[in-house]
């Protein structure tokens, strides 16, 4: 479905981003793996190329405009263009708001929101010129409802939600679509860090979803590929929940 489509995935060294890179590669896309974690990012690309896929790793600190500019330029120089941008990278800091330092707030906002502005800004220059492109942002159910105890994270995801809608409205005239996915808890290294490895804790969290299990990186990657594909050609500015029914209650 994505033969020769050039796809940039941020935060693709781990979790949802890694699985998204794998799924695009399986669909014959040319995949640009961007991450600050050079060891894991290089390993993802080594696995993909060993399996016969076309992929490169570009070390990127997504909080830096110079790095984001370099990411998009290097992708376009290597593969000729950027057709799809998946803004996925994010972090969670769960310090209560009244104890949160300015540095923690800035790190969250820079990683979760500014990074999406910066990568979109530079990818849009290529996409506008091509009169074609798709952006998929990884938001969260916490962009829709306030998840308890992570106020600053929720605020960044609220920003991602409105950035997505604004991209959709402003760039539809250039044949560019922008959508986001809103996962509830997904079983990734981020979740292991925030709730631990204890199976009973994971079972309790899974009960929050009417479907009764945690999401998998594949669940989210599938939704991202749908929003990047021609099958969603009349969908823009949308927030697709991938939450086992969490927000339906
Ligand atoms: N895991 C969940 O339960 C869940 C739920 C909803 C939304 N999300 C969102 O999904 C996205 C991916 O989360 P995940 O669970 O796969 O996390 P993860 O921790 O497994 O992977 C995140 C990746 O982002 C990279 N990264 C972090 N800061 C970076 C920076 N400054 N520059 C470049 N790369 C950077 C990390 O190195 C890592 O490889 C995030 O935006 C997260 O907010 C996750």
TrEMBL record:
Which Pfam families does the record associate with it? adh_short_C2
The first-level EC class reads oxidoreductase
Query: Per its UniProt record, what CDD domains does this chain match?
Result: SDR_c
Q: Which InterPro entries does its entry note? A: NAD(P)-bd_dom_sf, Sc_DH/Rdtase_CS, SDR_fam
Q: Under the GO molecular function aspect, what terms does this record hold?
A: glucose 1-dehydrogenase [NAD(P)+] activity
Keywords carried by this UniProt record: Oxidoreductase
Q: What PROSITE patterns is this protein classified in?
A: ADH_SHORT (PS00061)
Q: What is its EC number?
A: 1.1.1.47
Give yes or no: UniProt keyword Oxidoreductase: yes
* The family this protein is said to belong to: Belongs to the short-chain dehydrogenases/reductases (SDR) family.
PANTHER family referenced in this protein's UniProt entry, alphabetically: DEHYDROGENASES, SHORT CHAIN, ESTRADIOL 17-BETA-DEHYDROGENASE 8-RELATED
Q: This chain belongs to which protein, by name? A: Glucose 1-dehydrogenase
């Amino acid at each position: 479905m994505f033969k020769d489509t050039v796809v940039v995935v941020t935060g693709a060294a781990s979790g949802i981003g890694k699985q998204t890179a794998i799924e695009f590669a399986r669909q014959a896309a040319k995949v640009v793996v961007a991450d600050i974690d050079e060891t894991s990012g290089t390993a993802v690309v080594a696995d993909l190329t060993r399996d016969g896929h076309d992929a490169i790793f570009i070390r990127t600190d997504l909080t830096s405009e110079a790095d984001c500019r370099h990411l998009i330029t290097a992708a376009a120089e290597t593969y000729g263009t950027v057709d799809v941008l998946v803004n996925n990278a994010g972090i969670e800091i769960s310090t209560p708001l009244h104890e949160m330092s300015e540095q923690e707030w800035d790190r969250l906002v820079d990683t979760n929101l500014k990074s999406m502005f910066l990568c979109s800004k530079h990818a849009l220059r290529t996409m506008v010129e091509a009169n074609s492109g798709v952006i998929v942002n990884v938001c969260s159910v916490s962009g829709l409802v306030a998840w308890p105890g992570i106020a600053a994270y929720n605020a960044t995801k609220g920003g991602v939600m409105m950035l997505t809608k604004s991209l959709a409205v402003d760039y539809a005239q250039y044949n560019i679509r922008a959508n986001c996915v809103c996962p509830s808890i997904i079983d990734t290294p981020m979740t292991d860090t925030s709730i631990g490895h204890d199976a009973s804790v994971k079972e309790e969290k899974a009960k929050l979803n009417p479907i009764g299990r945690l999401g998998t990186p594949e669940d989210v990657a599938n939704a991202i590929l749908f929003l990047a594909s021609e099958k969603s050609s009349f969908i823009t500015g949308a927030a697709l929940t991938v939450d086992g029914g969490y927000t339906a209650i």
